[in-house]
Design brief:
This protein is an alpha/beta fold. It has 14 helices and 7 strands. The structure holds S-adenosylmethionine. Residues 5, 7, 28-29, 31-35, 52-55, 58, 79-81, 101, 103-105, 127, 215, 220 line the site of S-adenosylmethionine. S-adenosyl-L-methionine binds at residues 33-35, 53, 80, 101, 108.
């Protein structure tokens, strides 16, 4: 039995997006449909909902979850970065609101995709298991030492990136690195267990870097942000929850640029974060940051 994913900042998202009856809302990262169910409830039978996920299995399950629901509910297996193309294909108008709740879910964490070094699993890390993305193992064994160091530095902000990349290359000469444990061991071998006084596991940033690189997470985010006004109607809203500083920086910077170029206004001067109560109930919410933007009304 898989642990259901607990939606983070649910009330805060609803407040920000403010879904009204008969509205049209898009969830670009629907997963198990926690946020989606609350939005669908608010828009009612005459509303429209488009839910995307890059994980095909998740979309199949969602179709079952929402099968009895009234109203126009469309669920599509797609990268959210392609939402404009999906809307064109389905002949949809611009939406009243868009939600992105980035990263992976607790359900995926349990699906042995090698997202975490807490368990020994095959190094995969893809959300989209059916597409043609390389796995994390392909990346770890395929990039040059310099390329690996750059990925670890750029997407993990890891200052020991060169030393770690060197060690990975030494290890893979002996044997292809295929599991989370082999990778985590190589990192510990490079920097030592006491690295950063044990505040975080030495492999944390390397795993984050690989996941971002494998799934092109920052490119996807940049693309959808550059197309907001083609996706959302004037007066419509965007809510984005991010879980690490690289993503949050992109959202913050793009929202500022959009405000400067009169594309609309920022709804959250500071990011909305989880209350202590929510963090107690769902520790994953600790690093969540929610930002909102409203597209200018013409
Ligand atoms: C944190 S979960 C979303 C949880 C959901 N909001 C809920 O309340 O149940 C993130 C989901 O985004 C999906 N995802 C990640 N990157 C994606 C992308 N580029 N396009 C579409 N879905 C993506 C993952 O497969 C995962 O199912």
């Amino acid at each position: 039995m898989q642990t259901p994913h607990i939606s983070v900042l649910l009330n805060e998202v609803l407040q920000l997006l403010d879904p009204k009856p008969e509205g049209f809302f898009i969830d670009g990262t629907t997963d198990g449909g926690g946020h989606a169910a609350a939005v669908i409830e608010r828009i009612g039978e005459k509303g429209m909902f488009l839910g995307l996920d890059w994980d095909k299995g998740m979309v199949e399950r969602l179709k079952e979850t929402f099968s009895g629901k009234k109203g126009k509910i469309m669920l599509e297996y797609s990268n959210y970065a392609e939402v404009k193309e999906v809307m064109e294909r389905l002949g949809l108008p611009k939406a009243d609101g868009l939600l992105l709740d980035l990263g992976f879910s607790s359900t995926q964490l349990e699906q042995e995709r090698g997202m975490s070094f807490q368990k020994d699993e095959l190094l995969d890390m893809r959300y989209d298991l059916t597409g043609d993305l390389p796995t994390a193992a392909d990346v770890v064994n395929g990039l040059t030492e310099e390329e690996l160091a750059n990925v670890i530095f750029q997407y993990g902000e890891e200052r020991m990136s060169r030393r770690i990349a060197k060690r990975i290359v030494e290890e893979r000469k002996r044997k292809r690195i295929t599991t989370t444990k082999e990778l985590a061991d190589a990192v510990v071998g490079a920097v030592g267990r006491g690295y950063e006084k044990g505040r975080i596991h030495p492999a944390t940033r390397v795993f984050q870097a690989l996941r971002i690189y494998v799934n092109k997470e920052l490119e996807n985010l940049e693309k959808i942000l550059s197309e907001c006004d083609a996706i959302i109607k004037p007066g419509g809203r965007i809510a984005i929850i991010s879980f690490h500083s690289l993503e949050d920086r992109i959202v913050k910077t793009r929202f500022r640029e959009m405000e400067k170029t009169k594309k609309g206004r920022i709804l959250t001067k500071k990011p909305i974060i989880a209350t202590e109560e929510e963090i107690r109930q769902n520790p994953r919410s600790r690093s969540a940051k929610l930002r909102g933007f409203e597209i200018a009304s013409n």
